[in-house]
Amino acid sequence: MRHLTLIPVALVGSLALSACAEKPDETVERAFQEVNVVDENDLNDVMLTVADPNEAVNYFSRSTKQFPNRIDLQRGLALSLIRAKRNVEGVAAWKKVVGMSGATSEDKVALADAQIRVGEWTAAEKTLDSVPPTHETFKRYRLEGMVADANKEWTKADSYYETALGLTTKPAGVMNNWGYSKLSRGDFSGAERLFGQAIRQDPSLFTAKNNLVLARGAQRTYSLPVIPMDQTERAELLHTMALTAIKQGDVQTGEALLREAIDTHPQHFEEASRSLRAIENG
Predict the structure, then answer these.
(1) Residue 62: per-residue pLDDT
(2) Which secondary structure element, helix H or strand E, spans residue 238, and what is its range?
(3) How far is CA 63 from CA 38, 40, 41, 74, in A?
(4) Which residues, if any, are the signal sequence (predicted)?
């Protein structure tokens, strides 16, 4: 029994010493601060991923007004503006981030991405030139390839796209970019091959499907490729192929493809119907 009474006495002594070393108010305040930091980080992540982009913009706009020197919040605002497709504002936001203490090479790459979105190709090239060569990322090389394309520097573009492919586990997007580069320079068979590879990597990538039809149509191959597509996609691809045929002077083929597109679409296909009326009216 004597030993049992010693335990609470020891505990009381321990608590007393703790109280002497630290004021209770300070302990509680620090605990709340730690909880708030965790909650805020979680909320920031939610805003950058699953939240509505414009809601995220409002959230980070309020936060940056309260804490203007926090680069993580300024970065969140810039990311949210791009997600919301408010690209002009996004460029300004990324410029602010890049000018802050603690800015990284990845921030500069993000600025270049935003500049490309608004068509500022020369500025994007200058921004990418300021990124150290040791910063070797998929996004950096994909953007370098796009800038080289804009400058018609095809050898550079091929090199950058090839490097980018080796730095990602999701290559469909860059394959589509590279394919469009080949298409724009007249290498239709090379473009067709890359679009096909992009679709195999991501069967849901409709842009690559549409580009594949353009590449085949440019070679006067007016049959749809064997790729995954639903009924609506099939109708839209037939419409793309029809317009390609018409632009190349194969008007009768284009007209037949337009009729097939209209018949295939599960709903009224106004765009194809309008194209068909234009042909019928001469």
Answers:
(1) 94
(2) helix 231-247
(3) 16, 11, 12, 9
(4) 1-21
Question: Which of 189, 206, 228 is the last residue before a domain boundary?
Answer: 228
Q: Are residues 194 and 112 in the same domain?
A: no
Sequence length of the chain is 282
Domain boundary among 102, 133, 164: 133
CA dihedral 206, 212, 217, 221 (to 10 degrees): -120
- The answer to whether residue 20 sits within a structural domain is no
For residue 278, give its domain range. 238-282
Side chain identity, residue 191 = A
Asked if 51 and 108 sit in the same domain, the reply is yes
Give the contacts of 261 (CB within 8 A, at least 6 positions apart).
Answer: 235, 236, 238, 239, 242, 269, 272
Domains held by the chain: number: 3
| Residue 236 backbone dihedrals phi, psi, to 5 degrees | -65, -35
Residues 191 and 273 in one domain: no
55-74 pLDDT tens trace: 999 999 999 999 999 999 99
**3-class DSSP string for 22-78:** CCHHHHHHHHHHHHHHHHHHHHHHHHHHCCCHHHHHHHHHHHHHHCCCCHHHHHHHH
* 79-131 residue pLDDT tens: 999 999 999 999 999 999 999 999 999 999 999 999 999 999 999 999 999 99
Q: Tokens representing 3?
A: 């030993």
